[in-house]
DNA sequence: ATGGTGAGTGAGTGACTACTCACTAGTCAG
DNA sequence: CTGACTAGTGAGTAGTCACTCACTCACCAT
């Protein structure tokens, strides 16, 4: 199939589109189980061209993870701006809400879970560490909350991931309600 | 290579050994990235025989995950027995310590992370849900702690996983200390 | 002896997939 | 017009891996 377009998009635009496609594709089945072809199809280009812009699958995945963390930072920042007072707990709460709605579509969440699982690859582990560092330092500095509160924020974020990957929020059983209690939800679109 | 042994072990013993080998093998690189051959080598038998006892790789992985949850339950129960008082918080604390030493060798922890990542496979997701259910109901019933305390217990368990997969406990930086603060460690053997 | 049975394997096979490469086609400066 | 450049692809290749199958060997009951 030929792509007929009057004005060709340049490589940087393509890179953006590919990273976006990779975020969605890798979120489905993870680093190992997602063929690069799946990313290419989503981006509407050939697999060969994906490899021209991202020399290895690993680099592509890492770009997607990096993008994921950037998106989280943006969301936290936006959430923080909605709070007029400087109250640490109020800002932290708003950030929690913001994160909850960000991960409503699952891909941002799943990429993190997959990256954690693939963290035996040194570069992926390093990316995870870097992303976590960015988020923790940003939350601490921006909210001014106590170390304990920030730690708790991260811990319950992880709990959120567990709840979503196992689908226990759709379960209705007692133990499931216990685990998911108070976790804020925005229903998937 | 021939296995010369006077008394052949029966299939059930072999199954045990294979599950144990699978736990270690899959912990290294996860469900997708670990070839069944790796499990066979660890168990000291041929790959063909692994497939005779576990018809698919998926069933093998699930057996390993199940075994992981069983091990966790045993550990929690043993920890609970060390507490003479019936104080909920004391038992929960002991369980936390027990879990921390259980995951010191990483394989029990990594299997969970990998299973979470592979939870787009329905049977694996179901196994995760089942394991979580067993643990949550056991902890709640055995400690008699509040729902909030049990939820917190699970959340900080997940935080533990994040800390270990990203190696941030060996980092020494401020943000890393914040995240890992108070998480109990038993140094790896 | 003989034939059945359970434990175990060597040697495939077919499918998939990361990555490569030689190539086409549009665009534009001179 | 030409030649360099950029965007993009079709058709591979080499390697890996889940799973299969025909087989061997030890043991045992008759």
Automatic annotation (TrEMBL), chains A, B:
Molecular function via GO: DNA-binding transcription factor activity; transcription cis-regulatory region binding
PANTHER family for this protein: HTH-TYPE TRANSCRIPTIONAL DUAL REGULATOR CECR, HTH-TYPE TRANSCRIPTIONAL REGULATOR RUTR
InterPro entries recorded: Homeodomain-like_sf, HTH-type_TetR-like_transc_reg, HTH_TetR
Organism: Devosia insulae DS-56
Organismal lineage: Bacteria, Pseudomonadati, Pseudomonadota, Alphaproteobacteria, Hyphomicrobiales
Listed Gene3D superfamilies: Homeodomain-like, Tetracycline Repressor, domain 2
Keyword entries, A-Z: DNA-binding
Protein name in UniProt: TetR family transcriptional regulator
Location of the DNA-binding region in this protein: 35-54
Pfam family, one: TetR_N
Domain HTH tetR-type: 12-72
């Amino acid at each position: 199939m030929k792509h007929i377009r009057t004005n060709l998009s340049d490589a940087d635009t393509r890179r953006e589109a590919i990273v976006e496609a990779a975020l969605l594709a890798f979120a489905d089945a993870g680093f190992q189980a997602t063929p690069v072809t799946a990313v290419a199809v989503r981006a509407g280009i050939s697999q060969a061209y994906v490899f021209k812009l991202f020399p290895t699958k690993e680099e592509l995945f890492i770009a997607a993870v990096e993008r994921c963390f950037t998106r989280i930072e943006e969301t936290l920042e936006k959430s923080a701006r909605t709070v007029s007072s400087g109250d640490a707990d109020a800002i932290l709460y708003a950030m929690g809400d913001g994160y909850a709605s960000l991960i409503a579509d699952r891909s941002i969440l799943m990429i993190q879970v997959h990256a954690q699982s693939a963290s035996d690859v040194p570069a992926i582990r390093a990316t995870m560490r870097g992303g976590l560092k960015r988020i923790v330092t940003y939350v601490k500095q921006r909210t001014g909350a106590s170390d304990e509160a920030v730690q708790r924020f991260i811990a319950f974020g992880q709990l959120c991931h567990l709840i979503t990957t196992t689908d226990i929020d759709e379960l209705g059983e007692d133990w499931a309600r216990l685990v998911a209690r108070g976790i804020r939800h925005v229903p998937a679109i």
